Amino acid sequence: MTATAVAAAPEVQPVALRRVYRFELVKLTSQWRLRLVFLACLLAPGIYTAVVSAQTSLPADAVYGRWMNQSGWAGSLVILVFMGTLVLPLLTCVVAGDVFAVEDRIGTWRHLLVAVRSPRRIFVAKALAALTVTMVLLAALAVSSVAGGLISIGSHPLPGLDGHLMGPGALARTVLLAWLSIVPPTLAFSAVGLLGSVALGRSPLGLLMPVVLALVLEGVQLMPVPVALRVALPMNAFIGYRGLLTTPGQLGPLWTGVAVSLAWTMLATFLAYRLFVRRDFTDLAHDGSARHLVVAGLAPLVGLTAATAVGVVAATGATGSGIDRPKLEDALATSFSHLYVLQTEELHRPEVTEEQLHTTATCDKGGDRVEDLGPGADWRCVVTWTLPGATATGTAIYQLDVAADGRYVADGDGPKEVNGFFQIRTPTGDAPNPLWQFDGFVDLLDNARKGQQ
Amino acid sequence: MQPTAAIRARGVSKTFGDVIALDEVDLDVPAGQIHGLVGPNGAGKTTLLGVLLGLAVPDGGTLEMLGTPVGRALAVPGGVAGFVEAPGLYPTLTARQNLAALAALRNRADGRPDDVDELLDRVGLHEVAGDPVRGFSLGMRQRLGLAAALLGDPRLLVLDEPANGLDPAGKRQVHRVLTDLADAGATVVLSSHRMDDLAALCDEVTLLSTGRVVFSGPLGKLSAETGDLDHRLVTTDPERARRVVRTVPDLRLLAGRTSLSSGDERELVVRGPEAALDDLVVRLVAAGIAIRELGPVVPPLEAAFLALTGADLATQPADEESAR
């Protein structure tokens, strides 16, 4: 065979990003595992909401759990509670945590690089594809949970976390915004998934990083850590939507959560990108290294958390747990007054407004020897109010179980006709007593009332 | 003047830590040639193929492919395709989906879309085009990998062990695809451990050992590099044959059997020039000893490979006389 002349070939440009993105989507959507996950996301919340709403025993531990048989919107809000604890970190594991690792597992990196000719575009396309699939799964969860509740129970009003009654329109807006509010922390966990996937290759530890991180942060959230550290973690952003369920909205934690989540997203994505474009793809046995991950991945995120915590202290002056007596008294009095009005309406008693009640609350934590600060199940509060035209004031006792994240459950302790029994007798029949047990929350970052203590 | 070399490498070096993977490698592959890359494990073949595909950047030296200097990772010119180690295929996609998805990534020079089904037919996978790749045998994956490499009508194909895992029919099909490509003017660089594959396909080979080129040129020249070959001699009367062998000038009778010998008790191993072997045949016939087999213990190309890479030293049988 004789040599033939070759014309000088121009250097080929990398493949267009949209083509690589489409390729990544094709690969992701061809996985049976992901198809099953999608199906589960589409069906499980709806079925859970419909089935549990029909039960007499409701998941009262979850915010709005005790309202699931009263309003179809409550089911979606309960599902939202589960999202932040494990479901979304798990989904980000399955999608973002595997999107790079899968190429290591099946040995296709070289092939992909030769075809695309740009590690940068591969990274961007993979990240976008993972983001797209995660958002589709999240949308499926939201739609399913809302549909399950509305179909089985219907669109009925629901009290907010400060007791004010929210109509179907307001609930629809709030539930939609609540689901949107968990997008940023989902992005943060996805970015951590990308980081683990890039840094640890075929190692299962890389795949599990979002879940491991979620479990660690969940543990931190359960502890009475300073509020500045609490809000500096992306986990806190999963519960920021609670501020949407009060009037006026307590949006400090929500916006802080959004900002923290976006900062985590950007930093973790940048770290993953840097690790990826610096990788030597000629090493087929690449399994990453834990040391590399710690130094180049986790250490900067820990640094970000520390810097955020310092920033939160500087900006809000929030110290300690963020839970103190004045905040709790104020939150409880507000919720009680709203729910008292609701109870009055249900009982068809003479109309009364929150302002007319002049409700106050006095709380104490664990007796005289314990400082009235921080979370705990030993808060005891006495609520007092005055009915228009009456000379005597009414009093009701509540035991409060206050969680470190600011949520509390108020358990009525009498008198029986106000908050001591779980049902009330209305002209149309027995109905749940809104004052018997209710959820509320205190804004951990709100220091306006601190001086009143 | 237009260049005639599809690949022109000068002094290409690559190290990984303390390991020298490529040591001042020179390589010239004319356009339209099927060029074999051969060497023992760890010789640097995969690294060199990786460099040719742009997956690794040389630490030193110059590389020109299809007339274009290559200096950065993944900056090889258009028209270069192939695979290293194994073809990268996605097990959850079907054969057709794998090719279609890859075809969507690539721009053909003529702007026409790739005919995926024609490619599948070309490598003999048309009947399983709709099957997921996860169920494919190694040979089927190799053929699909070749089809993937053919997307976009490459002008230079770089393949690592393309016949690995193929049955004889599959191997013949792959060989036909590669020779057709070369006939059409494309250049093929392939690595293989199988000297018979190289002999059947390649115009020239480059032999690497510990990162260095120890031979580069036509196959015939490689065979000539070998000295006297060991030959297996099987006769009807081994004892008398042994005595005859000792009478032939320039012919040595080797003791013991090589690791490649048949294990036949009647087998002798002799070493000498072709003229001495001719003389042996004449003497055996004259002595009335029937020759059942006389052939090289190791094929000439393989012998050259072993000799040039020093791999034959471990299996070298001793002279029968000196062994006594």
Structure notes:
Chain B: Belongs to the ABC transporter superfamily. Chain B: This is ABC transporter ATP-binding protein. Chain B: Keywords: ATP-binding, Nucleotide-binding, Transport. Chain B: Residues 7-235 form the ABC transporter domain. Chain B: Pfam families: ABC_tran. Chain A: The chain crosses the membrane at residues 36-54, 74-102, 123-151, 171-195, 207-233, 253-273, 293-315. The complex is a heterodimer of chains A (453) and B (324). In chain A, the strands form 3 sheets. In chain A, strands 3-4-5-6-9 form a 5-stranded antiparallel β-sheet. In chain A, strands 1-2 form a two-stranded antiparallel sheet. Chain A has a two-stranded antiparallel sheet with strand order 7-8. The radius of gyration of chain A is 26 Å and the shape is elongated. Chain A contains 16 helices and 9 strands. Helix content of chain A is 55%, strand content 11%. Chain A has 2 domains: 17-316, no CATH class; 325-451, no CATH class. Chain A is of the alpha+beta class. Chain A has helices at 17-29, 32-53, 72-94, 96-99, 101-106, 109-116, 119-152, 168-181, 183-200, 204-222, 227-231, 252-277, 290-316, 325-346, 354-357, 416-420, and strands at residues 158-159, 165-166, 360-365, 376-386, 393-402, 407-412, 423-426, 429-432, 437-441. The longest helix of chain A has 34 residues, at 119-152. Chain B is an alpha/beta fold and 324 residues long. Chain B has 2 domains: 5-223, P-loop containing nucleotide triphosphate hydrolases (Rossmann fold), CATH 3.40.50; 227-321, Alpha-Beta Plaits, CATH 3.30.70.250. Chain B contains 11 helices and 14 strands. Chain B has helices at residues 45-52, 95-105, 116-122, 138-150, 168-183, 195-201, 219-225, 238-247, 274-286, 300-309, 320-323; strands at 5-16, 19-30, 34-38, 60-65, 68-69, 80-83, 156-160, 187-191, 204-209, 212-218, 230-235, 252-254, 267-271, 291-296. In chain B, the strands form 3 sheets. A 6-stranded mixed β-sheet of chain B has the order 6-7-8-3-9-10, with helices on both faces. Chain B is globular and about 70 Å long.
